[in-house]
Amino acid sequence: MQSPKEMLKEPLGFMRTMATKKVIQQFAHKFELVYFGFVDPREDKHELVRGITLSPEHKDTHYTVGNFRNHDITLVERQTNLHFPGKPPHMYRWLIMQIDLKHGGFPHIFIDANHHEEVFYANFFLQYAHFEDASSLFSRHDPLFSKYFKVFAERQAFDEVWSVIKSDMTAMLAYHFHQFDYELDDDRLCVYASNTVITTHLLQEMMRIGLWLADYLNAQPSNSTQ
Length: 226
What we know:
This protein is about 35% helix and about 30% strand.
């Protein structure tokens, strides 16, 4: 038999889902995207959003795709349980906006806004044990970037990382968009909002910085160096 707390969580969860659905559908309509809702990657012919949040037990909802200003965009809310020895599973939610870039060849980079809990980092470094902290590469950039962000990548890619993330990019993120995490990998850019209420303003801000970053990266040569 369910406890009163468990019984309360079910209607609250349903109300949250319906509210989120309405907000994302309105956003999709405004930007001429297509809202699919729940898709099963094992059965539906939809491209799976990968990246650092991918896990064997994740669940994706509010799947939305389309093209805006010549950018292919995928939006999804992802939920998964993160595990840490000696602690109960911790449920995480991410809102992910993926934007396909015009060319590939970019190194795999995670720009972390320092707002996650211990269980997230434990899982991250377990999955990406080859990643190292590259934040010192940007010590001469605006100090506000170092205050809000850390940068992780493979050691052998540090030169490429330094050539991709320039001072105008770090300034933009630090002064205006430090509420998000960012992942760059080959020809895909992901903007992440985690464990937050999904609002129209949040979606529009993700779109704004996502398109700016995509245009910024698309302007770089395909070998990611200048």
